[in-house]
Input
Amino acid sequence: MTEKRPNHRPPKARSIDSEALDRDFFTVYEVADLLGFHFQTVLKMIRSGELPAKKYGRSWRIRKADLQSFTTPENA
Output
């Protein structure tokens, strides 16, 4: 059986400046803008479990700590 590949490109090695991260939670649109992805790609990553997020009402919120751990390279 072949291994399932994700439907998106892996995140680029980007450092997010501290000015952009002065809040504790971010919307899907803000995360998409920070990472350079389309907002639907961020939603797919949330639904697949790659990016932890919480749903409040009808919108998703991503914690700053989860976003930082997602963008940090694993071998760093």
Summary: The CA atoms of residues 51 and 67 lie 8 Å apart. The chain has a mean pLDDT of 81. The chain has three helices and three strands. Residues 39-48 form the longest helix (10 residues).
